[in-house]
Amino acid sequence: MTFDYARRNALKKQSLEILADNRRSSGAYHYTLPSAEHYPYQWLWDSCFHAIIYAQSDPQMARAEIVSLLSKQFENGMVPHIIYWTPGILHLFRWGVEGTSSLTQPPMIAYAVWEIHRRHPDIKFLEAIYPSLLSYYSFLVAKRDTRGHHLVSIINPDESGEDNSPRFDEPLAASADISYEEHLALRTALIDKNRECGFEAEQCMRDFFWVKDVPFHAILIENLRKLGHIASLLKHADGEHFANLQAALVERAMRKHMFEEGVFWSLSGWEYKKLKVATWAHFAPLFAGLYSDEEAGALVRDHLENTSTFKAPFGIRTVSKQEPSYRSKGYERGFSWRGPIWMAPHWFIYQGLIRYGFRREARELRDKSMELLVRSGFREHFNPETGEGGGAHNFTWGALILDMLEDGHEI
């Protein structure tokens, strides 16, 4: 099949225009909004995606995105998932301390930093932000692993980046057919409980919500490896040892506690109960190379390519079609992780497929991602059955297609 260079160039132009339109400044800091209409703040893993995209053509802005993100790091090392740079705007996610949230998000920072340096080497930049990176990942493996079992916990569904994913229905006591309003009420009530316990992870987890999430862990492992690369380059032997050791320990713990029936499952509570809801989380470990070659082959054959579960006409459903919670259409008001396609999961799966050598499947996923953007524009999410866009407009995650297109027709 001939690669469509005209379509690629058009999507590149549109991606860069959306990023430019969503760019903001606050004093010396520069950052990019995921969507000006729905998300008028800086968000953690969104900024990491932006930095990865900027790294191709605008390394100065890529570095600025990371510097801005780390500027509000807590003393204990946590990086908040939202920075409210513009004061006075009312928003339902104004949680926690003044100026930021008191939650975090999937820890993509080291990966983004490594991508920037890989493309545009800058040792001074690495040296400047390395202490913040080390502090953040040290926080995660120490403060979010209260039992010392090398599994970190999230205290709220929003820390997964997947707000209303049905993976969290059981811990939230939510029904499969829960409405937007009902789910928001549950999460708001959980935030009120988080405030009661001062957002202290151990108490909040023990009393209210204690989940070890598969994508969060896969992302953590790959980012610890990247932190190890950065530490090695800077000749910080202790940091390199810490990062590589923790990556290995978390990987081992995932295999011990999360793996069953050929896939990884998220866990809940003190007893590490498996949350048996089939979501795209099964594919996230491909990103970090956590499956054996044989396991990955079975995963792709039996799950990724299965049209009755995950494979849809326009890409990969975020929830299996067989789940009672599956909904193809999202909410116009914003998030919906109960079936619709999102570009970030497409990107993670694409990277995993390339890693394992599934180039045909990667090419198909990339092409379907392109088709969605051409058909429906840069939307927050997409109906996997019809390709119709939903949620926010001019949503920056669509620009991840630039990273998927870097190989062009070669894959």
Explained architecture:
The structure is a single chain. This protein is mainly α and about 400 residues long. It has one domain: Glycosyltransferase (Alpha/alpha barrel), CATH 1.50.10.10. The chain is about 50% helix and about 5% strand. The protein is built from 15 helices and 13 strands. It has helices spanning about 5-20, 45-55, 60-70, 110-120, 125-145, 170, 180-195, 200-205, 215-235, 235-255, 285, 295-305, 345-355, 360-375, 400-405; strands at about 25, 30, 40-45, 80-85, 210, 260, 265, 265-270, 275, 310, 315, 380, 390. The strands form six sheets. Strands 5-8-9 form a three-stranded antiparallel sheet. Strands 1-2 form a two-stranded antiparallel sheet. Helix 9 packs antiparallel against helix 10. The model has no long low-confidence stretch (mean pLDDT about 95).
Gist?
The chain is built from 15 helices and 13 strands. By secondary structure, it is mainly alpha-helical.
